[in-house]
Design a protein that fits this description.
The structure holds 2 protein chains of 2 kinds. Chain A is mainly beta. Chain A has 4 helices and 18 strands. A 9-stranded antiparallel beta sheet of chain A has the order 6-2-3-4-18-17-16-10-14. The mean pLDDT of chain B is about 75. The chains are: A mainly beta, B mainly alpha.
Chain lengths: ~250, ~15
């Protein structure tokens, strides 16, 4: 049997809101070490990898490895019924065909249960090679969200170029061009506003803004986003979920 | 410029 209780249920709501427009359905894999998901969008251009560690849950039990197929739109419908302050418990029998979501309000006055039908989904687990990246950039997630949104009003693609001191985002389109530079700033007073660059090699890669805007829906999960870039490799756009795990997006370069 | 698929990067041959 699988049973997991997350005191901050809002976190699960935010995860699903961040990925539901990118992937239609996916298998959630549960084992002793935690709750994870790996899925590509239908055009095989981007990949979502979520992992929530067992110790990030208030209670976690998984007797056997199970894989639960869900349609994200349906999961989102159910999680929208949970209050932002509710604790969420997920439960499923080993050979069950449903997963139960239990929502508890903070004062335990309201308890609700929703069952979602599981589905069989063919999915292939991809081996993502461990790589050492040419450049790793950590920027405030709200700043990244604003940059990709602003640039999408000018062009369809963005060139991200990283040097020792700064990361530059550039685009151009029919009406003109734009570039936004963020300088390294290890702000001590306000760590949430820091921009940090770790570089082995200067790198410049071009990506579709449509996907980066979709990834930025994960902004509420983390104060920072980490971009990992290497020449001719997919970018990793990573949101660390404090104390619980990570949500990573991979996007092939243009 | 076309968009590359991730299959080329992550799928084992």
């Amino acid at each position: 049997m699988f049973e997991a209780r997350l005191a901050q249920g809002a976190l699960l709501k935010k995860v699903v809101e961040a990925i539901k427009d990118l992937i239609e359905d996916a298998n959630f894999d549960c084992n002793n070490s935690g709750f994870s998901l790996q899925a590509m969008d239908s055009s095989h251009v981007s990949l979502v990898a979520l992992s929530l560690r067992a110790d990030g849950f208030e209670h976690y039990r998984c007797d056997r490895n199970i894989s639960m197929g869900m349609k994200l739109a349906n999961l989102s419908k159910i999680l929208k019924c949970a209050g932002n302050d509710d604790a969420i418990t997920m439960k499923s029998e080993d050979n069950g065909d449903t997963i139960t979501f239990m929502f508890e309000s903070p004062n335990q006055e309201r308890l609700s249960e929703f069952d979602l039908k599981l589905m069989d989904i063919d999915s292939e687990h991809l081996g993502i090679p461990e790589a050492e990246y040419d450049a790793t950039v950590k920027v405030p997630s709200s700043e990244f969200q604003r940059i990709v949104k602003d640039l999408a009003s000018i062009g369809d693609t963005v060139e991200i170029s990283v040097t020792k001191d700064a990361v530059k985002f550039s685009t151009s389109g029919d009406i003109g061009s734009a570039n936004i530079m963020c300088r390294q700033n290890k702000s001590v007073d306000k760590p949430e506003e820091s921009t940090e660059i770790d570089i082995n090699e200067p790198v410049a890669l071009t990506f579709a803004l449509r996907y980066l805007n979709s990834f930025a829906k994960a902004t509420p999960l983390s104060p920072h986003v980490v971009l990992k870039l290497s020449k001719d490799l997919p970018v990793v756009v990573e949101y660390h979920i404090p104390d619980v795990g990570r949500l990573g997006f991979y996007l092939a370069p243009k | 410029m076309g968009q590359k698929s991730l299959d080329a990067f992550f799928k084992r041959p």
